[in-house]
Amino acid sequence: MKKIKLDIVGLSYSQTQSGAYALVLGEVNGRRRLPIIIGGFEAQAIAIEIEKMTPSRPLTHDLFKSFAESYHINVQEVIIYNLIDGIFYAKLLCNDGKKTVEIDARTSDAIALSVRFECPIYTYEFILATAGIIIEGNDFVFLENIETSTEEQAIGTTLNLTSLTDEELKTRLKEALTEEAYEKAAKIRDELTKRKSS
Prior knowledge:
By secondary structure, the chain is an alpha+beta fold. Helix content is about 35%, strand content about 35%. The protein has a 9-stranded mixed β-sheet with strand order 6-5-4-7-1-2-3-8-9. α1 runs parallel beside α3, α2 packs across α3 and α5 runs antiparallel to α6. The chain is globular, with a radius of gyration of 18 Å. It starts with a strand and ends with a helix. About 10% of the residues have low confidence.
C-alpha cells in the first residue's frame, strides 16, 4: 500500500473540548488536511519541540529519545496506519542498525516522537479519503463522514448544529476553514453528511 507523507501544519486549542487540542497534519504536495484531537500534555510536547524550547527537566518524550539513543535505536518513521471508530492508530518504525521493529503507539505520542527524531510521518490513502478535509481554493470538499473523537473518547460538542439550516452550516463551515478551525469544521462536516444520508 502506497504511503502518503504528512507534515504538521497546525496545532490549536480545541473549541469544543476543554483541555484538548486540534493537531492538523497536511498532505505534502497536496491540499488535504487530517485533523486529529489530542490531549494537552501531548500538544505541549509537540509545541515545545517545534519551537525548539528547552524545558528545565526532560519531558517523557525527551526521556524516550535519550533512552533510545543510549541503546543506538533510531525512530525512522511514523505511520498512521488505521482508523477505527474515529480513533487513529499509529506505529513507530525503529531500527538499531541490525533490525527494524514496529512499535504500536498513540498517534499523539508518535507525532511527539517524530518531531524529536526528525523523522517523516506517513499515512495511507484510505485514511485521508475517510477523515481528510480537502481545501480547493476558496472552496472545500469533505470526504466520508467519520465520528471525530479524541484518541481516548468521542468529543463532547458545545456546538448546537442541529438547529441550523444547511445554508447556515455551509457558511459556518467556510468560516471555520478560513480560520483554520479544523476541529469545528469537522463537526459541521459531520452534521452536513448526516443530513445527506438521512
